[in-house]
Amino acid sequence: MKTQELFTLLEGNKEKSLLFEYAPNLLVGANYHITEVKHIAIDAVDCGSQTDAWKETIIQLWESPEELGKRDYMSTFKALAILKKVGKMKPYVLDAEVKFEYSNANFHTAQLFVNDFEIQNDNLIIKLAIEKTDCKAKEICVVPEVVETVTSDAPCCSPDGNCC
After folding, report:
1. Burial readout 80-105 (b: 16 or more C-beta within 10 A, e: otherwise)
2. Considering the entire predicted model, what is its pTM?
3. Mean pLDDT by 10-residue block, N- to C-terminus, for the chain (164 residues)?
């Protein structure tokens, strides 16, 4: 999801509570805060010596230990107000991919991409997912797997225990 798409989604659902599903059926606690917004510029070289560049918006979510047991989630309106304030200080690249950085005691710190969203009663649930690493230069640098076929007239296993 692009940053602009997130803002449009939040704008259209200001009256809802904002929940984040960081793994299937696991929600970020209601005690979460938006603690940082990063405007990232990536300038990369892959294993095939190809260059690439892109931008990302990374929004960090943190669960406050002082608010354990909190039941009411942050409103979409409040989250949007926080993000708008950040945008006045440091403008967004609206076509940048948006990711959420999150961890808890049972889940490693990760930058999660927006996989989907769901509106459920008075809740807007942003469904996050882990992005697997991948080789961008497979055609250039990955050695193709060669399968060798051996043919023989002899049986594969012999009575003396010589098995293939």
Report:
1. beebeebbeeeebbbebbbbbbbeee
2. 0.83
3. 98 98 97 98 93 97 95 98 98 98 96 97 97 84 62 59 54
